[in-house]
Amino acid sequence: MTQHAAKLIGADLIGTESRLGAYNYKPLDVVLSRGEGVWLWDVEGNRYLDCLSAYSAVNQGHCHPKILEAMVEQASKLTLTSRAFRNDQLAPFYEELAALTGSHKILPMNSGAEAVESAIKTVRKWGYEVRGVPENQAEIIVCADNFHGRTISVVSFSTDPDARGGFGPFTPGFRTVPFGDAAAMEAAITPNTVAVLLEPIQGEAGVVIPPPGYLRRVRELCTERGIVMILDEIQTGLGRTGKLLAEEHEGVEADVTLIGKALSGGFYPVSAVLSNSEVLGVLKPGQHGSTFGGNPLACAVARAAMRVLVEEGMIDNAATQGAYFQEQLAGIRSNLVREVRGRGLMLAVELHPEAGGARRYCEDLRARGILAKDTHDHTIRIAPPLVITREQVDWALERFDAVLTGSHS
Ligand SMILES: Cc1ncc(COP(=O)(O)O)c(C=O)c1O
Predict the structure, then answer these.
(1) Which of 61, 148, 169, 382 is least surrounded by CB atoms within 10 angstroms?
(2) Residues with catalytic function
(3) Is the minimum distance from the CB of 204 to ligand 1 under 6 angstroms?
């Protein structure tokens, strides 16, 4: 196929998407058709280094051969039984996930938002049954600028006008405090508070890292006041920040941890609620479920995804390459850049407002073979697969340098 014909096919696909699809995303106009490791190719055959990893769902790299093998093998044997019956993949999935994370109980779900919803339901019930909170009075403390998904209850406690606008009436029972402010959290606690729910690093808000000691103080507060600490590690978890879970950077352990995204290495939606404090023990048959949650295909894929993450040293690689990437980005002399920040391979370059928005720089990066995404107008988020090598980081840095310094290499 000629380059021209491929371009027309790409334009045609974009046209069809616009005509038939709900307009709920504003993607870069690149139509991807293949991925391998850190690389992606579009329908015209152009190659790009992926600096988004599907919002950290592809930590293990695109189409990891061992996850693919597990998926194909399981798909040819058994894909779905529903939880009306048992399947032979669920128990080993539980065992391996519990061993990896130190959890005592696991609730398998599909999307990240479902894991968040499931945690909210469970801690409310725990509050009534274990803590004796009066019926329908349970409160959960959340943080401003959070991102936990798109369902009604979850957007009910979003502070983003785009996420909420026009979607009311909202689910009650949430109190919002500033992220990173433990004193504000303490002041918001009432006798009806059953849980706090927060991201260890706010991803969608632009990779916002709380002050040192914040998570430790939140942990202390939760312990002192008998409140469940829920950490949403759907984006930060599974190696992204250079540790298995981001909570480890502060040496804390949440009571309930939410994971998703990279739990399947990007092959399939798999999420889980992990509980260290028997909170999940309040659920009884008939009170919660999901047709696809815990299905054998999901479990087999997740088992392989966890295995390669550990066996292939991806978590350590995220720490090493992430520190180097961040240091080198910070060394780029550009008057567009306000701040470079991040942890592991969860990085962000925040531009000055005068730079005119991050989108144009993402377009420029795309033209040079890097796919990165703007977030909140002025921030370029950088989150490549955790398999990235030093040479590939250097390759990316040359392009970031060119775009941020306006040089034309
Ligand atoms: C921290 C966090 N929680 C929850 C979600 C929602 O996950 P999903 O899109 O799979 O519903 C996301 C997705 O970006 C996230 O980053």
Answers:
(1) 169
(2) 147, 232, 261
(3) yes
